[in-house]
Design goal:
13% strand, 7 strands, Rossmann fold, 7-stranded parallel sheet
Length: 270
């Protein structure tokens, strides 16, 4: 594998599993010194990460402390990947949503019709909404802000890669998740314009359905429906998303900023 990121320092949030873990592995394989952040410090032996740190991206003080530690320990910052994200939280109406979906599917199979409404919005409490937004959009904001503060002090260029989702375009998913992933694209575009004079590139990757532990909480019939809707006929592997991130983080994308790289098997066109 090429060493496009040789000796650069990269920080990846939500790095303990799934897409985040694959990103850490890929960036390390390309020569980067990678710091893996998650709520609990991720193990580094399997991925080749230089360092694993505990960080709550929904807490700005936690983010600031983690990035300051990285700067002190490794001497610089070059890349940050805002991957941390959640799809549900207590009080967000997920239980009622899945129950209604199962009941509706059962009626459709038995009768060919159903009047059951599959709602989540009416069951979603403030806390459930806020918890997902805190991780999915506040987290990338806090991380990008602290990363930029450090680069501005050092006078160095850098790159930010945010993880959005195909749901930002299709609207498929829960209200808080879809909204947060659409907001990621807006944040990416605004920061790309603002930070270009500082030589900081900002881009996003928008994955489609991907084989991650998050999928384990989704009903099997929904998984099957997602797979059959993808023109390539399958969900993505985490490594395929990581490859897109590595490209955007590298000098191969030196003239790319404000873009959304869609990796969804053709399931929806941006």
């Amino acid at each position: 594998m090429s060493k496009r990121l040789q000796d650069r320092v990269a920080v990846v949030t939500g790095a303990a599993q799934g897409i985040g873990k694959a990103i850490v592995t890929r960036l390390a394989a390309e020569g980067a010194r990678v710091v893996a952040l998650d709520l609990a410090a991720p193990a580094t032996s399997e991925t080749g990460a230089a360092l694993g740190l505990a960080c709550d991206v929904a807490n700005s003080a936690s983010v600031a402390a983690a990035l300051a530690h990285v700067r002190e320990a490794l001497g610089r910052l070059d890349i940050v990947v805002n991957n941390a994200g959640i799809g549900r939280a207590p009080g967000d109406g997920s239980e009622a949503f899945y129950q209604a979906m199962a009941a509706r599917n059962a009626e459709l199979a038995a009768q060919g019709a159903s009047e059951i409404h599959v709602d989540q919005l009416i069951h979603m409490e403030d806390a459930g909404w806020a918890a997902v937004m805190a991780v999915n959009i506040n987290g990338p904001f806090y991380t990008a802000r602290e990363f930029t503060r450090i680069l501005a002090r050092d006078g160095n260029p850098g790159t930010i890669v945010n993880i959005s989702s195909t749901s930002a375009q299709s609207g498929e998913g829960s209200p808080h998740y879809v909204t947060s992933k659409a907001a990621i694209i807006g944040l990416t575009r605004q920061l790309a314009r603002e930070l270009a004079p500082r030589r900081i590139r900002v881009n996003a990757v928008a994955p489609g359905p991907t084989q991650t532990p998050v999928m384990q909480g989704i009903p099997a019939e929904w998984i099957k429906s997602m797979e059959t809707s993808v023109p390539l006929g399958r969900m993505a592997e985490p490594g395929e998303i990581a490859a897109a991130v590595a490209f955007l983080a590298s000098d191969d994308a030196s003239y790319v900023t404000g873009s959304v790289l869609v990796t969804n098997g053709g399931s929806y066109f941006f």
